[in-house]
Fold these 2 entries.
Entry 1:
Amino acid sequence: MSALLRVSGLRAAYRSHAVLHDVSLEIPMGGVTTLLGANGAGKTTLLRAISGAMVTFKGSIELEGRRIDGMSTDAIARLGVAHVPDGRGTFPALTVEENLMVGAISRRDRTGVREDMGRMYELFPKLSGYRRSMAGLLSGGEQQMLAIARALMLRPRLLMLDEPSFGLAPLVVKQIFDMLREIKQEARLGILLVEQNARLALEIADSACVLEVGRVAIAGDANSLRGDPRVRAAYLGLQQEST
Ligand SMILES: Nc1ncnc2c1ncn2[C@@H]1O[C@H](COP(=O)(O)OP(=O)(O)OP(=O)(O)O)[C@@H](O)[C@H]1O
Ligand SMILES: [Mg+2]
């Protein structure tokens, strides 16, 4: 089966500062692929390159067999790539409902959009009570939920999440990951999840990839990475085989 996303030989730089060196990876349709790596490894840069938010890179990026590198961010989004950036990916001066509408801006199926809007309020009941509130007034956790809901309004083929747990209380992180499990079950899409919390990420992921200073150091199914001594020592804080 062909991959949902195939990145080959990607090199990216900010001016003369090279950040990604020959990165290749595949994301299958269905399931969660997690991208792990220390601060500065280039995780966010990789997501930016995929979504077209970064112009200076070489290599090829294919979505369902079609080259998307070189396309505009808008064109890539229309093909079904939704990117929830690090930080709060919402429009603070728009209401919750307006933020969701923005997520669906490229869709023409009004009935589907209305249905999906209802589905988002089911998935995130907290948002339902704030439909007409400004997004900027929501708590950090609620804004992260809104950012994910907004991305889902695109009906993406590929959903990319950049550290959705960052700065959130454990209970809120649990709610977000429970919801990701639900999406993974019900929607036909692939999820690329960047996470600092490797334990949590490997629990939900089917496959995983470790980026070390701009190179893929380890890649494989999530189970084998959980047992990999290098991952256990560097990302899970474990030395022994026991858990
Ligand atoms: N806009 C930018 N201009 C110049 N250098 C940048 C820019 N964004 C990132 N970098 C540099 O690129 C490298 C990789 O950064 P990136 O944000 O991709 O890492 P990351 O793996 O997402 O890290 P973190 O876990 O801290 O989010 C770092 O050395 C960073 O300083
Ligand atoms: Mg980052």
Entry 2:
Amino acid sequence: MNLNMLLQNCSILDGTGAPAFTGSVGFDSGAMRVFRGGEHPESAETIDVSGLTLVPGFIDAHSHGDLTLVSPFATLSKLGQGITTQIAGQCGVSLFPSVGAYSSDFPRFVSGIAPYPDLPDDLSRLNSAMGFFDWLESLKNPIATKCFVGHGSLRLWAMGYENRKPDETELRRMQEMLRRCIREGALGLSTGLVYAPSCYADNDEILALLRVVHEEGAIYATHPRNEGDTVVESRAESIRLALTADVPLCVSHLKAAGKRNWGKPRRMLEQLDRAVEQGLHALVDCYPYTAGCTSLNVSIPPQYFSRGLSGLVEALYSKTEREIIREEMSRPSDYDNYALNSGGFSGVYVSSCPVDHSAEGMFVSEYAERIGKDPFDAYFDLLIQNGGLGLGIYFHMCEEDVLSILTHPLCVVGTDGLVGKCGENPHPRAFGSMAHAYDLLVRKKQLLSPEAMVRKLSGQTAEFFGLTRKGRIQTGMDADALLLDLNGFIDKATYQNGSSPCVGIRALFIGGKRVDLP
Ligand SMILES: [Zn+2]
């Protein structure tokens, strides 16, 4: 036996939910070996870690980290909370396929989610999943990245921002490209049915694509059409589609936005339980906060995106269109109006803007008051000044819902983290989700045991996504692990200072090698 390193006498939470046990873990060319009790094998380096806890490297079940693979700030956001694997390409946005007639729209499309996406100099490298995985390999990012094909990317590639049904040729091209990407290693299809152009798809289109997902034995992940007033119906729609197509369903960032919708997650979880009884293979991901974060432009009705972001900015310049948009945004309607669900602009916090930074760190209402404008005008002008881009934090959920989702047996933790540039203030979930979930559910609310919580941060996610060598402390697994001072494992990221890494991680190992944080 040739161990490079042996961590001796640690408490082990193995990621399966089994009770903690004391043992030693050795690393041997990228894989791990577990020794229970008093066994003391030979090793080149032996470290006594009595009093510390070894857990599997955490798996971010809902990541947009594929859009910022080069940024050290983005990498720190993951490693700083113990994430060693991420499930990316979520909410309909992936970096592939990006080449085709509409490739000039692609960078701005991705910027809607990640304000400063990392793209290769030669975009043609990302013509399909294989090109993306080759580029990923060349970057040497320490985090293992698995990726969905984003439906928005696929639709943009096939038919631009067109607000209509695809014709037969367009649909067939999307199906063929989806099949090719899955065969090249993509996990399946993700939809982001609130974002253009994914939102222009009807159920026939999604079902036609899910047929390919079924044939290829892949997975469907979905951000639904609505997370507010019709969230129960929207989630039921995804369940129906998954059952009809017979595909595993990943329910992305389950929540209910807007005070009048609080309490609805219980109903959604019940409907999911019933679907599981009918044979649905499902997973839910959730980030442990009561505020969400996405594009600042998401409160604008979807039809204004059919000419891309430049079309949106043009509409906001026009006095007449601006009045119509304001009127539509002010009353409940069937689109997912984030500002309205956050109780108005006093619930929308400006996280980052790519050009004009003057509103960052303020609620839109505060910013409007400061510059002496009506909140709608302040918001519209802010979008114009930033080319339609920017990130907002939306205070629209309640803690009771978050707790009932996170404690459900089907739920695991995902960050849904989005980061801008170093120095900008991200939603704290980007840097803190894993430790925040642990602190909230194990320590503060005492709703889960450490074993059950660690499983939701690692083993359960690995199992659903078929990551057979990740997410467990077991002999033969990839040597991705964290050494924690478990009682001191606490998140430090807040809404005011969103980029503070967690404390309590004593060492982080990926592939058996100790990783220093960037
Ligand atoms: Zn989403």
